[in-house]
Amino acid sequence: MAIQEISANAPLNTLLxxxxxxxxxxxxGLFDPAVIQTMDAxxxxxxxxxQAGAATQGLGEDGKAFVGNNTIRFSSLGKISPAYFHxxxxxxxxxxxxxxxxxxxxxxWVNTAQAMLIGPGSAAQVLHRDCGNWxxxxxxxxxxxxxxTLSAMxxxxxxxxxxxATRVVPGSHLWPDYQQQADASLxxxxxxxxxxxxxxxxxxxxxxxxxxxxDLWRRAMHLSFVLGWLxxxxxxxxxxxxxxxxxxxxxxxxxxxxxxYDPRPHRGGGLWLRHVDPI
Length: 279
What we know:
Layout: E1 5-7, H1 12-22, E2 24-28, H2 33-46, H3 60-67, E3 71-74, H4 83-88, H5 91-101, E4 108-118, H6 135-138, E5 149-155, E6 167-168, E7 188-189, E8 197-201, E9 206-207, E10 218-227, H7 236-239, H8 242-245, H9 250-255
Parallel strand pairs: 1-2
Antiparallel strand pairs: 2-8, 3-4, 4-10, 5-8, 5-10, 6-7, 6-9
């Protein structure tokens, strides 16, 4: 069963139904072409300053193996183009994240915003669930545990299976055994055109595909959100200063950790308190 492809013009309920049934979907034309072209150019130019295989996700050799020896990853994307902030305000992705995450938190913030460039000859990434970063939340009462994170893998150019399209295992977010492993034969490539996005639950088993080309790089951008009472993978509040975000929307400021966390209407106390934000 290949993952569903649905137009960004479809009703929100249609998108949410596909997400809940399969654990993910491809939204066609989710991001504006001009924004994607700007981000693609900025990421391609910035990539020359990063060494393939150097990223470790903060986990040394284990992290390097997870990322891939011929893969380039880097974050702080707002530092290379303001188009990134525009992407954070995307209304469709915002509506999906609100529907998935706000039942479990007062607000959410950016978990990762990375360029993910898979180089020629790269092997397929190990299949995994993103929610595994927070095992005490995700594994308790599985598969009915709260959705901890929602992700978008965004195509910066046309991405094919041969080029290393992300592979997904539809329905794996509902498997009764969290520890069940997925064989690669169960996965399907999320082939996309520039501006399309694979939106998927943190519970969905997935992984970067093998780049089977001799001289082409797969260029994509990963943008994910996480519950506001969990620690994100990336340190966005440190990466960006108040001055960097002064002209951005309140949503962007909150997503990047420049607002206090208010749990309401849920139980809990104020977190990540800033003196400029009344709680």
